[in-house]
Amino acid sequence: MDQRPPPIPLKPNPVTFQRHRKEVLLQITLPLIIGVTLLCLGMLAVLGVGLGPGGSLVVSQTADISLIWLILIELVMTTLFLLVLAGIAILLVQLIRILPGYTHQLQKFFLRVQLKTSSLADKSVEPIVKIKSFFAGGHALRRR
Predict the structure, then answer these.
(1) Are the beta carbons of 36 and 28 closer than 8 angstroms?
(2) What global pTM score does this model have?
(3) The pLDDT value given to residue 76
(4) pLDDT score recorded for residue 17
């Protein structure tokens, strides 16, 4: 019985890699493009409603200033959130690059633990198995 761990594949499986690329396109990229497009169209619609017949804004100057401040606060908060999210994504990519080596070492360690435990379990029941097989052999001889 071969007790060595299975080898780690060096290159990704082309079939699953191609399926992964297709899923990324359909589940991430396409919805993101559609969402951004709808957001831009919605913003253009809001601006179109806000424009008056002569091309000037219908709302008052105080409301415009308040709206600018509200948008600036939201812009700063969104930028901070985007930076944190980008940092998490970068750290996650680095972790994914490092992790397979450590998980392989951990897998080898637990394989050694399994082999040692198996060996100790076999050794612990060996005397009982020998005694039982001796009596079973004697019993078989008496039956003949």
Answers:
(1) no
(2) 0.39
(3) 93
(4) 82
